[in-house]
Amino acid sequence: MNSLFPSIVSRSQSLGLMNFFVPIISIVLTLITGSIIFVLLGFDPLYALYTFFISPISSTYGISELFVKATPLALIAIGLSYCFKNNIYNIGAEGQLTMGAIFGGGIGILFHDTNAFWLLPLMIFAGAIGGALWGLIPAILKTKFNTNEILTSLMLVYVALFILDYLVVGPWKDPFGYSFPKSRPFSESGRMPLLFDGLRVHFGLIITLFLIFVSWFIFSKTIFGFQLKVSGYSPKAARYAGFNQTTLVFFAFAICGAFAGIAGLAEVSGPIGLLYRDISPNYGFTAIIVAFLGRLHPIGIIFASLVIALTYLGAEDAQLFLQIPSAVGFIFQGLVLFYLLGAELLINYKLTYKKLL
Amino acid sequence: MSNTILNIENITKSFPRVIANKKVTFDIKKNAVHAILGENGAGKSTLVKILYGLLEPDEGNIKLNNKDFKVNSPAEARKQGIGMVFQHFSLFDSLSVKENLILGIDEKMSYSDLENKLENISSRYNLPLDLDAPITALSAGEKQRVEIVRILLQDPQILIMDEPTSVLTPQEVESLFVTLNALVKEGRTILYITHKLEEVISICDTVTIMRSGEIIDTSSTANQTAKTLATKMLGQKLDDLKTNYGHIKDEVNFEVKNISCDFNDPFLTDLKNISFQVRVGEIYGIAGVAGNGQSELMDILTGENINIKSGSITFDNKKIEKYGPQKRRDLSISFVPENRLGHSAVPDLSLSENILLSQFPKNNFIRNGIILKNNVDDFANNVINEFKVITPGNDAKASSLSGGNLQKYVIGREISSKPKILIISHPTWGIDAGAEHSIRESLIELSQNGTSIIVISQDLDELIEITHKISVIYDGNLSKPFKTSEIEIEKLGLLMGGKNE
């Protein structure tokens, strides 16, 4: 008789090519599971999937919206990959995004009646600084006090959100805003330029593509990228090589924070145009899925950000046309992550049923 | 026969490339402390793992109380009356002593039953325990006590202790011996695995000596001395010695002076006042049984640990004890730690990428932070060709190589940068005979070209074959050096067993 529960045994050889298929397999399985959910809810699965995944991007406007959503996701995800490659689990990108929006947005509010070419670059710079500083807090705690960065970075998300909350109902409240919890709008030169008339896709996309390219270069060509990778694979080997791990932790957090901060600033100076409470539909958390779905690779992250952005759009359309709560979008994101982790496990390990005596 | 509890007959167990137990046969008397003495790799652990149901023998049989004894798991072994206390404890740190005991026993028991039983055990065997203390708050000796009590709760006839004193303070050792004596008086039998000669003579009644998987001798300890035990444990190793001292210069280029280091960790060995000198072109060997401070010393020599309490390391007239690994490499010091996978090489990276773990100033692998891939690949190809590493190419993952090939590659990487001194730990550990031979040859050749070498190894044959001088490390102390060509094996054995006259 075999035992009821399998035990997990490491595969001696990992299946090289499968690494490439993992994201694809998990997306296919997500679609299958999604159809089952739709059937159970009493919808025609094909129509539901169409509404969810095809109709949102069947217009130019839809495609522009896809890029609007994918921009922050890709930018944060590529930042996160600096941490994840180094085995640092920064879960707090949402907080770093918020802090970037506060710093950059603060400049925007300060110069709300200034129109000058330097305003937007200054805001972007401030956003990067804000995110980086917020990211450095868990880095300091980790290296000095050996705290777990998962907890500290996550808790700092809520601190950042409350600071934003305080600012928009308190000192930064728009004096002409009828007491709504929002700031003054930024001046025209404090806004991300739009790429096409009438569409919301903005200059943040160009910044994102540029930073993804830079990151690709760093990961594959520089000794810094190599050090991140080695210390992620094996801290002991990194110590043997003489890489300074404290420095690496600081850099990873600072870069990730800066990218998330720029993403936050791009949101408030792009589609939003001012500061208010809900500047991000959890982009900072969802980007974690994007980073892993893209296998921490720049090209992979571009595709993954588009797929996940689609779940945001699909959820809105599903709510409109099928009267399904938009939380279904989160279910799809969760399913992707679930299948991704599952497939990953099965690539590196196999299940065996031990013989019982 | 009535006073024999365990008959071990013709036990053979082989692993790929090595026979760990060869027709092992001996009897263990009831009501006694029976020692199994041997170097690392002599086959002691394999044998007790078979007794405890962790390994299955290929051949042979075991009789417990004249009945056939065959177990497939530690739980069965415990049911039959054999308990084991491992060198590394398996306790839940965050739980209390009581909770650990309840979890660790096979049958169900209420807390009140447990407490009654414990009171009995504690007083009878000198094993006082604070039941409510969390494990984290205990010293190594107290943790060991918990392990022993856990086994005693199941009333074993035979108790296997694996190197029990390695993590204890001298006072704790004393109190352990009191416990062991009490256990034997009660009619239990203790199987005592050790490499410490002194302990064998002071508390064991009978000793079985193992060497390379075979039983050398089983006899009463009454007519043994540390010397006779040491000779039997090590055997004759001085057969064909052809050490060449001609090329060694008088000039000392590496000197360690009075290095001391405290770790405050029962599983690490504090280093005590270690000093030695290496001359240009000399191969200096550090022998010793595993766990006597070798890896701690290695970390200090490589610069991976620079938190020493006192002492200095001088290389080419520079004080380097505060230098990290890269700064030492910049001075042309090169190192190969014991573990290939995950320490001197990253298994998931390609052979080419693994070159970058160890960069010397003249390598020219990096310009302005950018990796010069062609230079790195050329270097990797050179190492592969020169050291005859068998691999499909420099883009193969390090994990795809056999142990011997990867070790040749790692050592080749270090040698190719022509270091002034190479510090290497266990150069041929766990690799095939062919690779072993070629690595030893390259080390000898390297020293003849003027590189000093420090070799830390448990393999005495290896040290005697390649080194010019040997010191022995025991419990964090390093002995004075002996010229390899004039060495007395008996003296080495005594030092390795902790006897220094």
Explained architecture:
The complex is a heterodimer of chains A (357) and B (501). By secondary structure, chain A is an all-alpha fold. Helices cover 69% and strands 2% of the residues of chain A. Chain A has 13 helices and two strands. A two-stranded antiparallel sheet of chain A has the order 1-2. In chain A, helix 3 packs across helix 12 and helix 8 packs across helix 9. Chain B folds into three domains: 231 residues, P-loop containing nucleotide triphosphate hydrolases (Rossmann fold, 3-Layer(aba) Sandwich), CATH 3.40.50; 179 residues, P-loop containing nucleotide triphosphate hydrolases (Rossmann fold), CATH 3.40.50; 78 residues, no CATH class. In chain B, strands 13, 16, 19, 20, 21, 22 and 23 form a seven-stranded mixed beta sheet that branches. Chain B has a six-stranded mixed beta sheet with strand order 6-7-8-3-9-10, with helices on both faces. A four-stranded antiparallel beta sheet of chain B has the order 2-1-4-5, with helices on one face. The longest helix of chain B is centred in the middle third of the chain and has 16 residues. Chains A and B meet through helix 8 and helix 9 of A and helix 10 and strand 18 of B.
Instruction: Label the CATH architecture of chain A.
Output: Orthogonal Bundle
Radius of gyration of chain B, in Å, reads 25 Å
Helical/strand content category of chain B: alpha/beta
Order of helices and strands of chain A: EHHHHHHHHHHHHHE
Q: Which CATH top level class of chain A fits?
A: Mainly Alpha
How would you sum up the major sheet of chain A? Answer: 2 strands, antiparallel
State the shape of chain A: globular
CATH H level of the largest domain in chain B: which superfamily?
Answer: P-loop containing nucleotide triphosphate hydrolases
- Estimate nothing, just give the exact number of structural domains of chain B: 3
Q: For the largest interface in this structure, which chains are involved and how many residues does each contribute?
A: A-B, 17 and 29 residues
**Helix content range of the residues of chain A, please?**
55-70%
Tell how many strands the DSSP assignment of chain A holds.
Answer: 2
Number of discrete helical segments of chain B: 16
User: What's the overall geometry of chain B?
Assistant: globular
Order of strands, widest sheet of chain A: 1-2
Cα-atom radius of gyration of chain A: 22 Å
